[in-house]
Amino acid sequence: MNAHAMPALETKSTPAEVSSAFDEFHRAFTAFKEANDERLTQIETRLSSDAVTEEKVARIEGALDVAKRRLDGFALDQARPRLEAAPMRDDATAREHKHAFLRYMRMGETVALKQIEEKALSAASNADGGYLVPLPAEQEILRRLSLASPIRAIASVREISGPSLRKAFSTSGPAAGWAAETDPRTQGATQKIADMTFPAMELYAMPAATQTLLDDAVIDVEQWIAEEVQAVFAEQESAAFINGDGVNKPKGFLAAPQVANDAWSWGSLGYVTSGAAGAFAASNPSDALVDLIYALKAGYRQNARFVMNRKTQSLIRKMKATTGEYLWAPPASPGATATLMNFPVVEAEDMPDVSAGSTSLAFGDFNRGYVVVDRRGVSVLRDPYSAKPYVLFYTTKRVGGGVQDYDAIKLMKFAA
Prior knowledge:
Radius of gyration: 25 Å
Number of helices: 12
Strand content: 15-25%
Oligomer: single chain
Order of helices and strands: HHHHEHHEEEEEHHEEEEHHEHEEEEHEEE
Distance between the termini: 45 Å
Number of strands: 18
Strand order of the largest sheet: 7-8-18-15-11-14-13-12
């Protein structure tokens, strides 16, 4: 990590830049539609498209992806508040913690933090060493993660103070029925309760800085820590929430057992097939998308969304309805998301590319289907020795995750 990358002042994109990026993205999409329409016409008339047209579509689509990433970056930047704007308890303890933490970060002084630790009965440290960052800095890190981590942004997030989240869940729905005021309410004979545990695992990052930069009074050290660990934490979280095996990391939803949706049972995720191995069916490819949507129960579809990576989105972006309209639609405003058949699209690069037998497309209500577990507290251990002349900041947080409702997420398997 570049030790000289710590900014003295935070700069934000202007509304004019966001508007310009949004206009650029829509111009690219218009050009893409025109080129793809030409390609589809050639296929209809000659059963194939020429290489020049295919290259043109690919080139414009690449420009479209670049414009979308630029727009997303600006929208993300606009959504980040300054750290100083984060709410902080206006009490002596909070102010004392903040000042003591800054002295620790800049000069390595621990006396004041140890005094706070004694007052708070070890609330300001953890067993592995290091000290908890002040509450506003922790809130800023979590806020930035919710913006940068695609699955965290759509999942249910629970904060805990212990090592794991344990919850009971009815696999067949709660007992329900009608009864008079004085009639007994009996437990349903078919109701089954599952006991699920989601442990919080340690996630770490080690940003580095020079002592000269730390001595600069202009540098906002808390802001820098939040910015440095955001990208690393978000990248690691995204990969784990999708593909994690549950060993020293959260268990991703694609790691759950997968069965054909017609044979679905609790404890596995149901899938529908695309109609061809490693591809969509040659004729009426969008029928598979309709099957995927309606594999999900109506109660889950109200808050459902598609999750896929950029390459999968590239395949679907070319599909048209029988009326000639594109199934994929660009965001209607800066900060909004693209839609597919009127459902939001979440782009997660850790979703697998389309290949034979891959489950590269997910659809569901992830707020009900997947839970992210945050253990309260982000700690920092200052290390001025391991990488002289740089100072390392071993920053850790504990996070877990897993599927909590197996009926809320459906997959598409690219198979015949």
